[in-house]
Design brief:
By secondary structure, the protein is of the alpha/beta class. The chain has 18 helices and 27 strands. It has three domains: about 180 residues, 3-Layer(aba) Sandwich (Alpha-D-Glucose-1,6-Bisphosphate, Chain A, domain 3); about 220 residues, Alpha-D-Glucose-1,6-Bisphosphate, subunit A, domain 3 (Alpha-D-Glucose-1,6-Bisphosphate, Chain A, domain 3); about 130 residues, TATA-Binding Protein. The chain is globular and about 70 Å long. The protein binds 1-O-phosphono-alpha-D-glucopyranose (G1P) and zinc ion. The site of 1-O-phosphono-alpha-D-glucopyranose has 14 residues, from loops.
Length: about 550
């Protein structure tokens, strides 16, 4: 084996964010940048020598080059075997599935999720641990500490591996196995859902669906599942070929960026069901005919109907949602008599709850839903879950949602994002808000009175670890909330996210436009934080 030890110096900006290390492609292309981070992963973990690692990405620009580098570094660092997705493709949920199935010590997913790709776009590296989930904070902190002191990395001098042909080759002493990107994941889905019934629904000649893969990683998965296995007509999957720049789009499944799908579902002769997924396949958006299901409501519906689905027939042990996610799932948990956990933003906080069997379903308002079947959120899993419920209940999406609101009340919800805000201004806004926290309680704004206000802090009920400063919450006496936090995934300036929620028990008032029903809270959010003045922006960049 021709192992080279290369001298390097630290980059001081390699602190992993909400979901791995994300930077512009041009940053990752700097000499030694990727290598330093990968070596820091190996330096910070133990007992991986001779063991199996999983590797793949969402197919974005620089995916293939990065995979070749990582394979050679894995070989030089003593990894026993790497299973890599064919053509470098493995969705985030599929990676989690494969890590668990083959007892790997961990895996690396190359993705910047929903951020745009291409030479001028973003790239990212996420490290997942043996349970298949994102590395928890203690691991990402250890990696970050290593990036600050790194002075050398190891890489094998070898030619590139053929990533497009299934099968096994050797890289030095390490086995490289190019695996089918879809097969293991598809098998897991078949074990959870009633494919027979879903196939009946999709082939009954009445029900029509359409799924937008946004030229990102889920294309091959969606073709294999919905068109080949479940019998939906070809053409059901839109934008199903992964492209390095996602066709110039922003692979974020929301009403703004998934406009192809939105046009179809809100157009003439719209199909019954629509869904979209993001760059690396862990997010989902669910639409009915001319109807949008908020991600928070989606989690609540899945929880309320879980026992209709074979994989969840025995019920749920608990539900977990991120703090900014609406409280709709809490109402279902209360009805079911199970716990509902409120965690900081980011999927890594769900791992311990799932491992300890305290929660079965998890979700985030940011179009993420998942369960204990893996340790990541899972876009196509959510689509199959919805289809399974619809196949059993034989109801349109809108009717299902309305009946849910009738029973539990409706949590009106919206998120306002201010993107690419000057970082200093954004930090000033947050510190000014933080300074107000002690004085807000009891204050009145129009019809609203502040019941509590804090900077959210979370103590993990399993390992006792504490995560502080996870977002500023202002709760009102009627259950409404405003939450402010800065994004941990953006790469340009800062992104301010404002989350707004109110509760309406009266079903005669369930027909409002959320922006209207939340108008007063939106105005209060601006007044308290001086958003327009401090950001210099007169309206949000994206409203979901
Ligand atoms: C965003 C979402 C968060 C999600 C993360 C990774 O993080 O808000 O819910 O877990 O992307 O997909 P943020 O940019 O807000 O830190
Ligand atoms: Zn993602």
């Amino acid at each position: 084996m021709d192992i080279k030890t290369v001298a390097t110096t630290p980059f001081l900006d390699q602190k992993p964010g909400t979901s791995g290390l994300r930077k512009l492609v041009s940053v990752f292309q700097k000499p030694h940048y990727l290598e330093n981070f990968i070596q820091s992963i190996f330096n910070s973990i133990e007992n991986y020598q001779g063991q199996t690692m999983i590797l793949g990405g969402d197919g974005r620009y620089y995916n293939r080059q990065a995979i070749q580098i990582i394979l050679k570094m894995a070989a030089a660092n003593g990894v026993g075997r790497v299973k890599v997705g064919r053509s470098g493709i493995l969705s985030t949920p599929a990676t989690s599935c494969v890590i668990r199935k083959y007892d790997a010590f961990g895996g690396i997913v190359l993705s910047a999720s929903h951020n745009p790709g291409g030479p001028d776009g973003d790239f990212g590296v996420k490290y997942n641990i043996a349970n298949g989930g994102p590395a928890p904070e203690k691991v990402t902190t250890a990696i970050y500490e290593c990036t600050k002191v790194i002075d050398q990395y190891k890489i094998l001098a070898a030619s590139d591996v053929d990533l497009d042909t299934l099968g096994e080759t050797k890289l030095g002493d390490m086995a490289v196995e190019v695996i089918d990107s879809v097969a293991d994941y598809k098998e897991l889905m078949e074990s959870l859902f009633d494919f027979y019934r879903i196939r009946e629904l999709l082939t009954d000649g009445k029900f029509r669906m359409c799924i937008d893969s946004m030229h990102a990683v889920t294309g091959p998965y969606a073709h294999a599942l919905f068109e080949e296995r479940l019998g939906a007509p070809s053409g059901t999957v839109l934008n199903g070929t992964p492209l390095e720049d996602f066709g110039g789009g922003h692979p974020d499944p929301n009403l703004v960026y998934a406009h192809d799908l939105v046009e179809v579902l809100f157009g003439e002769d719209a199909p019954d069901f629509g869904a979209a997924s993001d760059g690396d396949g862990d997010r989902n958006m669910i639409l009915g005919r001319r109807f949008f299901v908020t991600p928070s409501d989606s989690l609540a519906v899945l929880a309320a109907n879980a026992t209709l689905v074979p994989g969840y027939r025995d019920g749920l042990t608990g539900i977990a949602r991120s703090m900014p996610t609406s409280q709709a799932p809490d109402r279902v948990a209360a009805e079911l008599g199970i716990d509902c956990y409120e965690t900081p933003t980011g999927w890594k906080f769900f791992g311990n709850l799932l491992d300890a069997d305290k929660a079965t379903l998890c979700g985030e308002e940011s179009f993420g839903t998942g369960s204990n079947h893996i340790r990541e959120k899972d876009g196509l899993w959510a689509v199959l879950f919805w289809l399974n419920i619809l196949a059993v209940k034989q109801q349109p999406v809108e009717q299902l949602m309305r009946e849910h609101w009738q029973k539990y009340g409706r949590n009106y919800y919206s998120r306002h994002d201010y993107e690419a805000v000057d970082s200093d201004r954004a930090n000033e806004l947050i510190s000014k808000l933080r300074a107000q926290i002690p004085d807000l309680q009891g204050k009145k704004f129009g019809n609203y009175e502040v019941e509590y206000s804090d900077d959210f802090s979370y103590t993990d009920p399993v390992d006792g670890s504490v995560s502080q400063n996870q977002g500023i919450r202002i709760g009102f006496t009627d259950g409404s909330r405003i939450v402010y936090r800065l994004s941990g995934t953006g790469t340009q300036g800062a992104t301010l996210r404002i989350y707004l929620e109110s509760y309406e028990p009266d079903s005669s008032k369930h027909d409002l436009d959320p922006q209207q029903s939340l108008a007063e809270l939106i105005a209060i959010a601006d007044e308290v934080a001086q958003v327009r003045t401090l950001t210099g922006m007169d309206k949000p960049t994206v409203i979901t």
